[in-house]
């Protein structure tokens, strides 16, 4: 039996009374499957600070909903468009105030990196655990990108091996030689203690330098720093990584997202 097309207006949820003080994360859910959208609504209904204000099941409905309704985050299924990357570019251009969280059906390094370059704030598997998705929305609502540990590794690897933009298009950011060295160490996945040993200083001094770098580049944390470097080639020649210290198997302990710390 063929499904009846549903207009964006018919999919939109009426905001809860009293939801006018900006205390809620307002979300539009765009996904091809009604059962999946219903599942997300049930998950978010358990949260005190997340409200679904709209839904869409086609790309056209998604574009219309993003333009018409006030939302902080758009959860967008990559399969809604023939080219998810192009769709993200269009949505970011048409609705610059909405942050995009893109849902993918399978892990894809090339697609993940391209979606981030086009303006997505997060790339999440459709199989993500509910609590992890909620943590992602909280992080993105604060203006920060969100990736799982595998995504972070992809970003760092891309920084090490790819030239994303020519030197002439780089932003005019002046880093001192020591700041550049520390940034390069960060993009190698090195912890502050390892950076301090490499640079010949203390962990506190490294932290002080990183705060200055964050201010200069307009980023908030190590993940944003890595993404910024990936897109703008702030450091041309990463230093050779220091010998790896014994670990518990986590390649990037300082960059891996800890859901418990994001809520």
Task: Give a quick rundown of the structure.
The protein has 263 residues and is an alpha/beta fold.
Tally of helical segments: 11
Report the principal-axis shape.
elongated
Spatially, the strands of the biggest sheet line up as 2-1-3-4-5
Low-confidence stretches: 1-10, 12-21, 163-170, 237-263
Name the average pLDDT: 77
**Structural class of the secondary structure composition?**
alpha/beta
The major β-sheet equals: 5 strands, parallel
Q: What portion of residues is helical?
A: 40-55%
The count of DSSP E runs of length 2 or more, i.e. the number of strands, is: 5
Alpha-carbon distance between the termini? 42 Å
Question: What is the rounded Rg?
Answer: 20 Å
Description:
- This protein has helices at residues 8-11, 34-45, 59-68, 84-94, 109-118, 130-141, 149-161, 177-187, 192-199, 203-217, 222-232, and strands at residues 25-30, 50-56, 73-77, 99-104, 122-125.
- With 263 residues, the protein is of the alpha/beta class.
- The protein has a five-stranded parallel beta sheet, with helices on both faces.
- β3, α4 and β4 (99-104) form a beta-alpha-beta unit.
- α7 (149-161) runs parallel beside α11 and α8 crosses α10 (203-217).
- The longest helix is centred in the C-terminal third of the chain and has 15 residues, at 203-217.
- It starts with 7 loop residues before the first helix and ends in a 31-residue tail after the last helix.
- Residues 1-10, 12-21, 163-170 and 237-263 have low confidence and may be disordered.
